[in-house]
Amino acid sequence: MITLYDHPRSGNCYKVRLFLSLINLPYRREFIDVLARKNQTDAFERISAWRQVPAIDDDGLAVWDSHAILLYLAQKHAPQWLAPLPHSAQMVSWISVSANEIANSLQPLRLTKVVSLAEAAHHLGVSEAMLDLNGLQQRTDRLLGLIEKRLGASPWLATVPSVADIACYGYLALAEEAEIDVNVYPAISAWRRRIEELPGYVAPGQVT
């Protein structure tokens, strides 16, 4: 059985829990107390090279990084979540958006709202004085505007449902925790509802 090394407040961990539930794949959870630095050990580094959650152990095979995990699980257990040609390039592009644009805007902005600024700075690898809250907000606003434009033209990021939607949904599902009014973005709101209506959906705070 797959072991998921997990933290319940992490959006990256949530997207893996969500996908495991959507594809109805049983797993066991092992809580890693990131705030207490329990991930900063040599033992955990053998599972996750960057000592980050999420990571999984699939019968001795360690896979880390939420997007690598999503692709691995889809390839092994749920190929219907891999967009076919010609949409596969769009899928990879939107996974890249999750790993880059979301990870450098909405994700850290939300972090500054749910933990102390000192704790957020530690996890972001900067000093508290270097936290650019205005810059994070501006990048988040631009990100949401571009995603809104895409979802206004297509019901799914890669035209068809794919792991790209789950990758990006992980933190867009938590946008309210970043003090974002999602009602301003009707296409994003409708897309979130489409995902929430999928069989097997679990909410961010729900642990299966």
Automatic annotation (TrEMBL):
<dbReference type="InterPro" id="IPR036282">
    <property type="entry name" value="Glutathione-S-Trfase_C_sf"/>
</dbReference>
<feature type="domain" description="GST C-terminal">
    <location>
        <begin position="84"/>
        <end position="208"/>
    </location>
</feature>
<dbReference type="InterPro" id="IPR036249">
    <property type="entry name" value="Thioredoxin-like_sf"/>
</dbReference>
<protein>
    <submittedName>
        <fullName>Glutathione S-transferase family protein</fullName>
    </submittedName>
</protein>
<feature type="domain" description="GST N-terminal">
    <location>
        <begin position="1"/>
        <end position="81"/>
    </location>
</feature>
<dbReference type="Pfam" id="PF02798">
    <property type="entry name" value="GST_N"/>
</dbReference>
<dbReference type="InterPro" id="IPR004045">
    <property type="entry name" value="Glutathione_S-Trfase_N"/>
</dbReference>
<dbReference type="InterPro" id="IPR010987">
    <property type="entry name" value="Glutathione-S-Trfase_C-like"/>
</dbReference>
<dbReference type="Pfam" id="PF13410">
    <property type="entry name" value="GST_C_2"/>
</dbReference>
<dbReference type="InterPro" id="IPR040079">
    <property type="entry name" value="Glutathione_S-Trfase"/>
</dbReference>
